[in-house]
């Protein structure tokens, strides 16, 4: 049986690339991570705010599968939880294979609806040279695979800690693959 749990949690009060790991985060329904610079109902990512500050915030929570960090470390990158801006590192969850609208139940009460894929940007290369290329891949058909995690919105608030269990709830109906958000 595949154990699915929270490996680490992180937040940053300012718009920094990395987020320092912490003992716990509090998710706020409809807003995101309490105390995180990206918390709110409308977009908080600076490039998106410049385009249209009234857009809904579909990127309240950034989740990365810890297995990606393991892969990057094996390739010589110096990454730890929070290094690439994620709020939640997961273990045992194939985040990239989830359909749009899947719900992750984190810990005792929190839940996050997956809205799409993180679109990696050049900030990754500013953090460590070659990192952006390392989180991109090509499928056999030549299409681009974005491996830098998924984004979501908070449905139900609650405290999330490393070691908390994760349950995946798939949406009803036809499953739509994740697209960049």
Low-confidence stretches: none
Strand residues, percent: 25-35%
The value of Rg in angstroms is: 15 Å
Number of helical segments with 4 or more residues: 4
Strand order of the largest sheet: 2-1-6-5-11-8-7-13
Indicate the overall shape: globular
Sheet with most strands? 8 strands, mixed
Which class best fits the helix and strand makeup? alpha+beta
Give the termini distance in whole angstroms. Answer: 32 Å
| Helicity range | 10-25%
CATH class: Mainly Beta
CATH architecture: Beta Barrel
What quaternary form is this? single chain
**Which fold name corresponds to the CATH topology?**
M1 Pyruvate Kinase, Domain 3
**Total number of domains:** 1
H-E string: EEEEHEHEEEHHEEEEE
Looking at CATH, the homologous superfamily is: PK beta-barrel domain-like
Mean pLDDT across all amino acids:
95
Number of strand segments: 13
Q: How would you characterize the overall build of this protein?
A:
This is MOSC domain-containing protein YiiM. Residues 20-169 form the MOSC domain. GO terms for molecular function: catalytic activity; molybdenum ion binding; pyridoxal phosphate binding. It holds the Pfam family MOSC. The protein has helices at 46-51, 66-74, 123-127, 131-134; strands spanning 5-10, 21-22, 25-28, 32-33, 61-65, 88-91, 103-106, 110-117, 136-138, 144-146, 150-156, 158-160, 166-169. The strands form three sheets. The chain has an eight-stranded mixed sheet with strand order 2-1-6-5-11-8-7-13. It is 13% helix and 30% strand. The protein is of the alpha+beta class and 181 residues long. The protein has a single domain (5-169), classed as Beta Barrel (M1 Pyruvate Kinase, Domain 3). The model has no long low-confidence stretch (mean pLDDT 95).
